[in-house]
Design a protein that fits this description.
alpha+beta; five-stranded mixed beta sheet; four-stranded antiparallel beta sheet; 9 strands; 46% strand; single chain; elongated
Length: 157
């Protein structure tokens, strides 16, 4: 009987060693599958981006106060909790006076969205010379990225 026990103990020891090796290999493979690679094998960072597909009317354009510029953009939010995206009009490096824009719901992953901007009123012509594209955290409290696109929209009476 003792010989049989030694034999069984030896089998279990070898099986245990093999099992440990398999666990190590599986752990490595699982860890590597979570890494993102580009076509050339280099690691790729998480992406947050907004790309304007179209603006209606095309820039340059003259509009009446309260007329809307319709913007269609593609977005990609890397945070699994999502984020918010705002497109806001800028004049001379600052947010435009008496502006309006579409608020942002919580956006997750990739998608396409249609929004608007406008200048509601004014005594003089307001020239919107940039659109600010901001990606913010899910709660809207932290700016993740901010880019500007040159435009030329004149709003007046």
């Amino acid at each position: 009987m003792k010989t049989g026990c030694k034999l069984l103990n030896g089998i279990f020891e070898n099986a245990s060693n093999h099992l440990c090796g398999i666990v190590v290999i599986l752990t490595f493979l699982i860890a590597m599958s979570g890494c993102s690679k580009s076509d050339d094998g280099a690691s790729v960072a998480a992406i947050n981006k907004v790309t304007i597909k179209s603006k209606t009317p095309n820039t340059p354009a003259s509009l009446k106060f309260d007329e809307e510029v319709i913007i269609i953009y593609d977005y990609e939010i890397a945070d699994p909790n999502g984020g918010r995206i705002w497109v806001q009009p800028y004049t001379g490096g600052s947010i435009s006076p008496k502006y309006s824009y579409t608020s942002s719901p919580l956006l997750i992953g990739k998608g396409t969205r249609t929004v608007m901007i406008s200048i509601t009123s004014g005594t003089n012509t307001v020239v919107v010379d940039q659109l600010m594209l901001e990606i913010a955290s899910a709660d809207g409290k932290q700016t993740i990225s901010e880019t500007f696109e040159a435009v030329n929209y004149s709003f007046s009476n």
